[in-house]
Amino acid sequence: MPSIGVSRDEPRRPDVVIGDRYGTSCAPLLPDLVEEIMSSLGYSIGRNKPYAGGFITEHYGNPASGLHTVQIELNRAVYMDERHRERGPRFAQVAADFATLADALAKIPFGDLGPFQAAAE
Questions:
Q1: Fewer Cβ within 10 Å of end Cβ, the chain: N or C?
Q2: pLDDT-derived band at 10, boundaries 50, 70, 90
Q3: Quick one: DSSP state of residue 119?
Q4: DSSP E strands: which ranges in 44-105?
Q5: What is the Cα 113 distance to its own chain's centre?
Q6: For residue 119, what pLDDT is reported?
Q7: C-alpha 78: how far from chain center
Q8: At the top level of its lineage, which domain of life is listed (predicted)?
């Protein structure tokens, strides 16, 4: 996501914005874990503003059916020089931090998320 909004008067956006359609697209465990891990790694966190989740999050997130979606937006200023569209000095660290996050998310037992729906065969 861009580091600032349309208005230059808007303050800098958080480093990470977690979108869960205001709690409707996934079990609370998912955005809570994302926030816990990313904030422990030093990122500032926002929830659902300015991004609550787009089409996929809205249309496919159905926790009651075992389908959980969460959108994670990363402020471009964290990993790149927006003006020159080049990798910034923290690029490699940000990639490593997101690998840490992905590893933690992959370790969540299915049962902790609520009902589970197997994929169609």
A1: C
A2: low
A3: P
A4: 45-47, 71-74, 80-81, 86-87
A5: 17
A6: 58
A7: 14
A8: Eukaryota
In the numeric block, the tokens 């020089």 are attached to: 81
Residue 35 and residue 20 in contact, taking contact as beta carbons nearer than 8 Å: no
Is residue 94's pLDDT more than 60? yes
Nearest Cα neighbor of 26 from 78, 65, 73 is 65
Distance CA 21, CA 42 (A): 24
Amino acid 85 reads R
The 10 Å Cβ neighbour count of residue 67 is 15
Helix (H) or strand (E) holding 81: strand 80-81
Chain CA centroid to CA 29, Å = 13
Q: Are 8 and 44 in contact (CB under 8 A)?
A: no
Residue 81 to residue 94: CA distance in whole angstroms: 14
- Identify the CA nearest to 116 among candidates 70, 71, 64: 64
Query: Quick one: pLDDT at residue 9?
Result: 62
Rounded Cα gap, residues 115 and 83, in angstroms: 45
Please, are residues 5 and 46 in contact by the beta-carbon 8 Å criterion? Answer: no
